[in-house]
Amino acid sequence: MTPLLTADVFGWTVRPVRWRRARALLVVVAAIAVLSLHVAFDPPVECSDAVPCGPDWLNAVLFGLVAALPVVAFVSLPVTAWLAAGFFTADAIWQVAHPGLASPAWLTGVDAGLTVLAFVTARLAPPGLGTAAEMWAATTSHRRPPKPGHFPRYGLGWRLLAVPLLLGACVIAVLALVEQSGADDRLAAAERVTAEVTGHPDEYTLEVRLPGRASPVRITVGAADEHPVGAHVAVLVADDELYQLVSEPYDTSGWLSLAVLGAGLAAGCLARARERSVAARALFATEQPATEVYVWALGGRVAVYATDARPGEPALVEFFALSRHGSDDIRPGILFGVPAQRHWCAVAVDGELLVPRGPARSGRFAPAYGGPAPDPDLDDPGTVPDAARLPLRPEEILALRPEDVAADPETVHTHRHNRFSGYAVVLASSWPFLIVLWRLLPVLPYWGAVAVTAPVTAIACLSGWRLLLRPRVAWNGAGLSVVGSIGARLLVWSDVHAVRADRHGAVTIETDHHGAGLVVAARGEHALLPRFLSGDERTGLQLSGALRLAAERAAVRARERVRDVVSLPPAPVAPPAPALLYLTWAAETLLYALLLAGLFDQ
């Protein structure tokens, strides 16, 4: 059976969760845009005594479907596609039934486009793990996992959530229909009178004076401004104190929209449960990559390590098993499946099959691979070393830039954030604060608005300069100079305890055993900004790898007593901000002041 090596899984493109949700976000944005177009361009509905606005159940279904689209998109894209198709069909039927209120032809085409987009998005396969993973899957051994004696009911939580949603939707729909039927019967026998509008307690309530009554009564309407004070309106008066305008009869059809929304969510939950069940059963129904691994299984928690894992290295993946395993040490086992996030895996260890509760997650949450420490720098030789201090693997060195791998200790390497993306962040970072101020503050005179926007944009520019725009790191074979987010230092390599990088691109250069050090920003592995905005900037892993490689080579030269004539790189002097940054601050301040001064509202 093929052993699973660290090099086998190196270079796999594991997208974070936000990339999975990008498809759902696309459908959400499209649904909101379509709804906004309908609000802006649909003919207005006018209510009159001759043509009253009675209950419109099909219109309520339309509102429920379009309200369900943005919510269900994050639960199940296939169900969202069918909801979009239902919205388009119901809208077409409604327009045929109400030709005088039909939407423009182009807007109906937009509805059809939303349906097509939803189906295409639902059918798009999620991004793969890359060519390295495909080559591994093609060359590794395959075996069918042992079938568990009792196959669990996957997706039970989603089903339990769907049941109250579906029951609630049914109850709301039934109550709305019953209430509307009763109100219709009462209004059929009501008396029609003419009343005078005497006040507007709020925007949805009229206060009217009925003939023969000393005190006024209140009636709920769609818009109180359509009935000015002093106007006369026709009112239906029932014996049980039910008052309704003739043009706006009693209407409970809006509750049906809430019922449709609940039913759509229930359908999405059931589809999500079925999706989990199908994925879990597929793991045991077909042949899967079968590899030898090391396994740490304690209770229901299972961590999987490569067969060449070194003490201190993180696990490849981790999942939770249905059965509990009593061992608390690392043992050899057999992995069935692909060791990547959101993939289903099972492990056989000590003759016991550990069936997963759900897909695997990142191994960074699991304990590091244990064992005796080969690192002579550690005080306690029985402790587990830090993965950030382990020598780089050959595949990690190959992933670095050629100039960073060059062995000449005299060469000075530098790193700085891409300027284009840095200025983009500076320009965008102040917008949320200015939008909040625009909503909270009254309209200001222009120069008063300048006084408000100037410090906000100054903070954005200063933060962007300190974190993104100024040069950050320079290093060679002797040491490195660092301009961190806070502080700057000139260090020899023996002063560097460890170099760490997270998946967001932040690189921490630790200078003691307690984790203190300097933080430098680099490009994340899956940055939100497009690649063309980041240019040829190093990722956080590339920068940390280059620094670790230089530190390793310096340690080798020190152990071999090689006398270097290499001088330290230039001292970390923070340069003054460029004129372009000051121009950006001035332009932002004057432009955003127009927003607070209300000039865009004119």
UniProtKB/TrEMBL annotation:
Residues 470-536 form the Low molecular weight protein antigen 6 PH domain. The chain crosses the membrane at residues 24-41, 61-85, 156-178, 252-271, 420-440, 446-468, 473-492, 579-600. Keywords: Membrane, Transmembrane, Transmembrane helix. This is Low molecular weight protein antigen 6 PH domain-containing protein.
